[in-house]
Amino acid sequence: MGGCVDLPLGLFELDMNNLDEGVEFLPAMNSKKMEKRGPKRQVVVTILIIVFLLVSLTTGLLFWHFKYRNTPIQKVFNGHLRVLNWEFLDAYENSSSPEFSMLAKKVKSTVEEIYKNHADIGPYHKETVITAFSEGSVIAYYWSEFLVPKYREESLDRAMADKQSLVQRWNPRLRNPMLKVESVIAFRDCMFSLHAKEGEVTSFTTPGFPNSPYPNNALCYWALRADASSTISLTFKTLELEPCRDDSDYIKVYNSLSPVEPHALVRLCGNYAPSYNLTFLSSQNVMLVTLVTNKEGRFPGFKAEFFQLPKMKACGGSLKGDSGTFTTPYYPAHYPPDTDCVWNIEVSSIKNVKVRFNMFYVLEPGIPVSSCTKDYVQINGTRYCGEHSQFVVASTTNRIELLFHSDQSYTDTGFSAEFLSYDSSDPCPGKFTCNTGRCIDRSMRCDGWLDCVDGSDERSCTCTEQQFRCQNGWCKPKFWVCDNVNDCGDNSDELQCSCAADSFKCDNGKCVPSTQKCDGKDDCGDGSDEGSCSLTTVPCKKYTYKCRSGHCISKQNPECDGEQDCEDHSDEDNCNCGLRSYVRKSRIVGGQNSDVGEWPWQVSLHVKGQGHICGASLVSASWLVSAAHCFLPLQGIRYSDPSLWTAYLGLTNQGDLSGSGVQTHKIKRIISHPFFNDYTYDYDIAVLELQRPVTFTAVIQPICLPDATHNFPVGKDLWVTGWGATAEGGTGASILQKAEIRLINQTVCNQLLTDQLTPRMMCVGILTGGVDACQGDSGGPLVSVEASSRMFLAGVVSWGDGCAQRNKPGVYSRLTSLRDWIQEHTGL
Ligand code: 4AZ
């Protein structure tokens, strides 16, 4: 026995030993009897044990089968269907009307019939309730309850998600079915009920977050509750849904437990920058979060947190002193709905008081700022709402009363304001006072820019030598004349340059006879007279867009504009570019700092031991575009050696190179344009191949490359970004900077820059100075937002006569002139 190792057998042997012990009173001498009895007992006991084991196994299996495998679980699906042969009546809006009940009965039996015909659905259907009707012709909304054994759950889910299985089958006996229905859609229901715990933060996420995408065709509810006389603060920590479209997935948050529009606080879709404030407050102790998803897409979803806080007793109050600050409740979180606050501000009796709003976001979707009927700030009978940059409201006394009102629905981040006392005889010491009371720098007076919202800084000006006097009396820089932008407001700066009645005005300002428009010849010299003639195939010219098939079309900028213009649709190929992942950038960060993910194609090129040297743009997973002059040898260093460089992608802050989302890549090869001239900076372009492709993320995306025929019109606003110096001769920025600048007429700019421009260059800037690219921005992107809202690379930061000086705009490599060379070397 010593050799036995099998545990059950060992136990059996032990039992046998015990049995032997139990027969010690038997006559020991009757050895024969002993011999015969011994084996017989063994057999009986063995059989008994086997029977016992079999019975236990069967009982276990039956128990498992009935308890787990066969126990029905309750499942609820929401859905809607369209009734084709029925007309909508107003009475269907009222669920207690007899008309509603009558149609509901018919729809219910039709749905039940559809279920009955499906083996994976019918047997498990328990109940269907029609909840509402809406127009079109009639759309019925319902929920259906099922009791399904666990092992059949998956096949039920699959059948309910499959549109093909939810179709009406004609019953040959009923030649005319009462209702003809189509588009039967069922959403998997997910409902959660959560109660805030005193002093604790409760988290919840979309199903499967962050490891798997949230389900398609789903309708999820999270009912959030808090103790009586508390309110709820809800924050979405991360939120990544399908990009916003009319029918895209979305979240709605309600200030109630019913998903009704008058209590909706916000509708969210797409992707939000991490710094965007997504905190919402309730006015009572309940909140409802809903997620509605369509049939396609795989997106991570959200993680949210909520906690309870004591109900706000009062807001507003009395403010005294020479200055002070105040904000909407819970700023910068979204203010709670259904709130009224009054501030009574009083400064010393010999002074006057003014209120300056540094941030103002009181926007209610669909409400024009001229009416401010829902959420608003009211001062001296005037209502303010919407989104505003800094503005001032001044009082002519030492008191001011400010009222803030939010209604039941849709809230925003509110305002942050300060009050200040001022001397009525000198309201802005050392500065210019706008008629609104705002103080602006004296240099801003009569500079052609409206710095006071009411334009009072540009009134009663005497125009200087460099300025043009508009018919309405305003002075504008002469270089703005004939740039195709109505700078005067009355268009007088564009009148002298308009063409005669029977002629066509080219994008470059030239006039050509109307008869030359669309005659197949480039009479303007920039192709604009042949730009948008017809969508049919035309003879290929320098200015016509060439489809992959070799056919040409005359539409201007047809690439990636969302319309298929080429017969082979090649104009819409490779269009995964030029879009930011985040729907909204942070509105809290002020100035010119960029937000995380705002320019996802921006690359920072570092040299070992020297840090950031140049910018670049990501144009595909493996290619960057930059400036050739970044790779010129300098002080004995061969900057053209790819092994010196590291590309940082997804970066915003140079002080946080290993921050989340940042990818570093080594460079495989650097190809500078062979015609690059290091004296004139003509052909200042280079392409860099990465050693391994990047992974596109919310903060890393490529920019669209324009076709060589793409037209960026003079006067267009473009964006330049980089970590270059923030002042001439200054140090680089640590946060990625952005600036909006204008494309300047080539002839005008060539005059300003003493004939240094070549056709591979273009001038972009603000001629009054103050906004420009600078050292360290070189190689970085100059981008244009096109009508399709995609962004295209228009230029590469190249050179300039200093930085941000008056009448010295920055010079950029003109992408369209260098496009064919990029294609040749990258295949893009
Ligand atoms: C530079 O040195 C540089 N103002 C880049 C752009 C400009 C000036 C200098 C344009 O990289």
UniProtKB/TrEMBL annotation:
Its EC number is 3.4.21.109. Residues 588-827 form the Peptidase S1 domain. It is a single-pass type II membrane protein. The chain crosses the membrane at residues 43-66. It catalyses: Cleaves various synthetic substrates with Arg or Lys at the P1 position and prefers small side-chain amino acids, such as Ala and Gly, at the P2 position. It holds the Pfam family Trypsin. Keywords: Disulfide bond, Glycoprotein, Hydrolase, Membrane, Protease, Repeat, Serine protease, Signal-anchor, Transmembrane, Transmembrane helix. Residues 190-309, 315-422 form the CUB domain. Belongs to the peptidase S1 family. The gene is ST14. CDD domains: CUB (cd00041), LDLa (cd00112), Tryp_SPc (cd00190). GO terms for cellular component: plasma membrane. It comes from Ficedula albicollis. The active site is at H629 (charge relay system), D684 (charge relay system), S778 (charge relay system). SUPFAM superfamilies: LDL receptor-like module (SSF57424), SEA domain (SSF82671), Spermadhesin, CUB domain (SSF49854), Trypsin-like serine proteases (SSF50494). The lineage of its organism: Eukaryota, Metazoa, Chordata, Craniata, Vertebrata. It is found in: Membrane. Residues 73-191 form the SEA domain. One of its GO terms (molecular function) is serine-type endopeptidase activity. One of its GO terms (biological process) is animal organ development. This is Suppressor of tumorigenicity 14 protein homolog.
